[in-house]
Amino acid sequence: MLAGIGPRPAGSVQEQQAADYVESVFRELEYEVRRETVIRPDGGSSDNVIGRLPGANYLAGFLLVGAHYDTVAGSPGANDNASGVAVMLSAAEALSGAATPVEFVAFAAEERQPPTGGALNGSGAYAGRVDGSTVEAMISVDMVGNGPSLVVGRFRGSPAELQMELASRAADLAIPVEFTDRYFSDHVPFARKGIPAAGLSSGDHPTFHSPEDVFGVVQPVNLEWAGRTLLSWILDRSAVGS
Ligand SMILES: [Zn+2]
User: Fold this and answer.
1) 33: CA distance to ligand 1 center in Å?
2) Ligand 1 center to 90 CA (angstroms)
3) I need a surface site. Which of 15, 20, 66, 189 has the fewest CB within 10 A?
4) pLDDT digits 0-9 by tens, 143-182
5) CA 139 – CA 183 distance, rounded (Å)
6) Strand 177-180, strand 135-141: pairing
7) What is the DSSP letter of 141?
8) Alpha helices (H) along the chain
9) Sheet with strand 197-201: strands edge to edge
10) pTM to 2 decimals?
11) Ligand 1 midpoint to CA 200 (Å)
12) Ligand 1 centroid – CA 176 distance (Å)
């Protein structure tokens, strides 16, 4: 659906169409949905689309899973990052009706937007207002559609515990894993605030940020690796917390 909308750079009509689509899926899955206005460096605004489980208690803290839905100009962004949004929504579907305190966010305006140069606008806006004691951990799912392994990344200099938790979930599921401590996506504003944060991806692909990043690039097995690892991590963390 998102790749079919086509390129959806921040501020475009297509970015709003993508936001509307994500909101409609959250509603079908009976999530509580709200939008958070994101003021971009160019002065315009975009929306983070946020879904919560109506039966869960978020007051004592919650897990946060995010995936950006915008693209660079000219790229349909099937891998970057319709793939991550699809995995996030699949996890939301698997947890529909549960009382697990997990919040799902489709972030706007992640990509660097020339000429103003800003990036991570949606996640930055969210992280800027969030209380670090309520978000227990944050996972970004970005570009998970094509690669030889599941890449578990963190921002340079941030602690590795969450990365290790994800790797252990993947290992239990016999999913091939690689690590990087040079990973840059929507987890970065959270890591900078001291919130445990990590990212799932399948590594760079030659079609990255090009018109060739189309539906056919995305491989089901890669989505499955990311989705199963993410869901297993959420269930494991929720079991420990209850
Ligand atoms: Zn991306």
Assistant:
1) 23
2) 18
3) 20
4) 999 999 999 999 988 889 999 999 999 999 999 999 998 8
5) 12
6) unpaired
7) E
8) 2-5, 13-28, 83-95, 121-129, 161-172, 188-192, 220-241
9) 32-39, 45-52, 102-107, 62-68, 135-141, 197-201, 150-153, 177-180
10) 0.96
11) 11
12) 21
